[in-house]
Amino acid sequence: MPKIERKAVAWMWSAYSLFLFIDPILDPRPGLWMKSITVFLTYLAIFTVYISTGSETIKRCMIACTFVLGLVAFSFNGGATCLFIYTAAFIPFSFVDTQIILGMFAAEAGIIIAERYALHLGWPNTIIGLLLMGVVGGSNVFFAQQRRADCKLRMAHEEIEALAALAERERIARDLHDVLGHTLSVITLKAELAGRLLQIDPQRAALEIADVERTARKALSEVREAIGGYRTRGLGAEIEAARATLDAAGVQLIAEAPSLSGLSAAEETVLALALRESVTNIVRHAKATTCKLRFFSESGRRRLLVEDNGNATDLREGNGLRGMRERVESLGGHVKLEHRAGTRLLIELPLQAEGAAS
User: Fold this and answer.
1) Residue 205: CB partners within 8 Å, gap ≥ 6?
2) Of the candidates 176, 175, 211, which has an alpha carbon nearest to the alpha carbon of residue 192?
3) What is the pTM for the complete model shown?
4) Contact (CB, 8 A) for 231 and 225
């Protein structure tokens, strides 16, 4: 409930303070009227501070002031029991421990009874006040706990939303890296090739420059897709794109036709992006002449194997490999990267990941 609405409801409950005027109406002595009006205005001032402040210390001071005002007014006005009820109603919202709250209720009741005996006040107002204190105070213990639980739940929801937004930003960042890293590598290769061909074969150089333009436009389209919720074009199409990219870099691709039966959309997206990152790394770093690609199922797991015969220099795990690992592990899979006679990348996904992913 918004803060303004809570204050409006609180002022509605303050209407019970009008019980202070029952005794003056029944016994219209000017002195009683003046004292009752003074108590009423004082209570309104205390109540205004109570609902306006954000300090728990000040709220507790206002609760104590309300109780003391009730003790003073009860000596000449039986309707002042409403102030004791307000005190019992406020306590559960300012204290958390239930034992402390019940202890304060008991202390409040004991002080009221002691005042009744000390000043020889009537029992009816005292008993009615104590009963209403128990009912209202006890009910507010429940409502206060419920409000705190709702507050914790709302904070948890806000935290979940913040974490979801962070995860989405990280996903888009990873996908942008994969899209741009791969495409810019292709553009660089083709631009270098066009530069070498410019003097010896201008016609082919023009074709390569035109291909650079098409690739750049395609990259722009893929970036827009990534921002709106990137989805790959599929593993089969990604293999063909990898073949074209490796061919431009002078790397022969040896690939088995993948069997995509039973492969979920999430798994295909993860494998396609992993293949794209692998090809990008081969083109940039491996200086390989051949690349072998195999997609198969074995021992209850789906496997994507990418091998090249390039330099076996260890590569630091940058954003691309880190993003690949995070995506694979989100589906319960694993990434194994080995550097021996070339680089060997093995991606494993559990067969049961399909149900979870969809």
Assistant:
1) 193, 194, 195, 197, 198
2) 211
3) 0.47
4) yes
Please report which helix (H) or strand (E) contains residue 340, including its range: strand 334-340
Distance, in Å, from the CA atom of 84 to the CA atom of 76, rounded to the nearest integer, reads 15
Contacts of 53 (CB under 8 A, 6+ apart): 59, 62
CB 236 within 8 A of CB 228: no
Cα 312 from Cα 325, distance rounded (Å): 20
How many CB atoms sit inside 10 A of residue 293's CB? 21
Q: What is the pLDDT of residues 14-62, one digit of tens each?
A: 888 888 999 899 988 999 999 999 999 999 999 999 988 889 999 999 9
The separation between CA 27 and the C-alpha centre of its own chain, rounded to angstroms, equals 61
Q: What is the pLDDT of residues 165-196, one digit of tens each?
A: 777 677 667 766 766 777 777 788 888 888 88
For tokens 């005027």, name the residue.
Answer: 21
Q: Would you say 343 and 319 are in contact if contact means Cβ atoms under 8 Å apart?
A: no
